[in-house]
Automatic annotation (TrEMBL):
<dbReference type="GO" id="GO:0005524">
    <property type="term" value="F:ATP binding"/>
</dbReference>
<dbReference type="GO" id="GO:0016887">
    <property type="term" value="F:ATP hydrolysis activity"/>
</dbReference>
<dbReference type="InterPro" id="IPR003593">
    <property type="entry name" value="AAA+_ATPase"/>
</dbReference>
<keyword id="KW-0067">ATP-binding</keyword>
<dbReference type="InterPro" id="IPR003959">
    <property type="entry name" value="ATPase_AAA_core"/>
</dbReference>
<feature type="domain" description="AAA+ ATPase">
    <location>
        <begin position="25"/>
        <end position="102"/>
    </location>
</feature>
<protein>
    <recommendedName>
        <fullName>AAA+ ATPase domain-containing protein</fullName>
    </recommendedName>
</protein>
<dbReference type="InterPro" id="IPR027417">
    <property type="entry name" value="P-loop_NTPase"/>
</dbReference>
<keyword id="KW-0547">Nucleotide-binding</keyword>
<dbReference type="InterPro" id="IPR050168">
    <property type="entry name" value="AAA_ATPase_domain"/>
</dbReference>
<dbReference type="Pfam" id="PF00004">
    <property type="entry name" value="AAA"/>
</dbReference>
Amino acid sequence: MAQIREMIELPLRHPTLFKTLGVKPPRGVLLYGPPGSGKTLIARAVANETGAFFFLINGPEIMSKMAGEAEGNLRRAFEEAEKNAPAIIFIDEIDSIAPKRDK
């Protein structure tokens, strides 16, 4: 939890401090774990604590059979989050839309 505060909450609460120090905060954080372990709850809590806009994307629902439509859906979601910055975009079940890589 302390790492989440360091990586997400502090930059959202004190952006001028980070800018003054010349420190670039991370642009993304990957929360992983089995279903029901609290990943969504943590993301919502951080958004609530920092006053950030919370945008939930359900991986399987964003997919489409039409070529380019899934990319458009994702692009619109990021544009909406950008309009409502600061924002936290939470992509649930991302493993369902990301291709598996060979090892």
